[in-house]
Amino acid sequence: MQSLLALSRLIDAINARIGQFASWIVLIVVLISAGNAVVRKTLHISSNGFLEIQWYLFSAMFLLGGAYTLQKNEHIRIDLLSSKLSRRAQAMLEIVCTVLFLFPMCYLIIAYGWPMFMDAWTSGEMSSDNGGLIRWPVILLIPIGFTLLMAQGLSEIIKRLGFIAGVAADPLDKALDPHKEHV
């Protein structure tokens, strides 16, 4: 179990770095958006490329930040039922839901996203808009983002199994108190 917990810490560290990087994309999007607006209003010059890079970067924030959001237990959930359960029962419910819902969804999106990326890559797909950008980088974010999310789901399962087995702290304690050390 200790080797699995080490794997969980590795996945957490990778997704934390990627998630923190994704959070800085917000600033880049704001700067590009503001710069584009200033240039458009003052110089009467517009570029579809600037508009497209904004939605590419928004996609990167969402897709690369999803696993980090799951790690920090900040994803949307309905606690109506689980809040009435013991911590161990909550951990079991999280494991079951991850296996039954998160993993299949991630798998399907990866399975369909990879061929889409390969088609865009091999064809050199470009935006149909004048001055638009190549499409494969943003399409590649789909399988990458959902692979990271699936890996984080595995990490969450490992942490909850460790908690149930009594060899790891309750993963929700960390989520409730962000200053607590990671097990």
Automatic annotation (TrEMBL):
Q: What's in the keyword line of the UniProt record?
A: Cell inner membrane, Cell membrane, Membrane, Transmembrane, Transmembrane helix, Transport
Supply the Pfam families for this chain.
Answer: DctQ (PF04290)
Quick check: keyword Cell membrane in the entry? yes
- Domain Tripartite ATP-independent periplasmic transporters DctQ component stretches: 30-161
Task: Quote the subcellular location field of this record.
Answer: Cell inner membrane
Mode of membrane association: Multi-pass membrane protein
Q: What is this protein called?
A: TRAP transporter small permease protein
Gene source species: Craterilacuibacter sinensis
Organism ancestry: Bacteria, Pseudomonadati, Pseudomonadota, Betaproteobacteria, Neisseriales
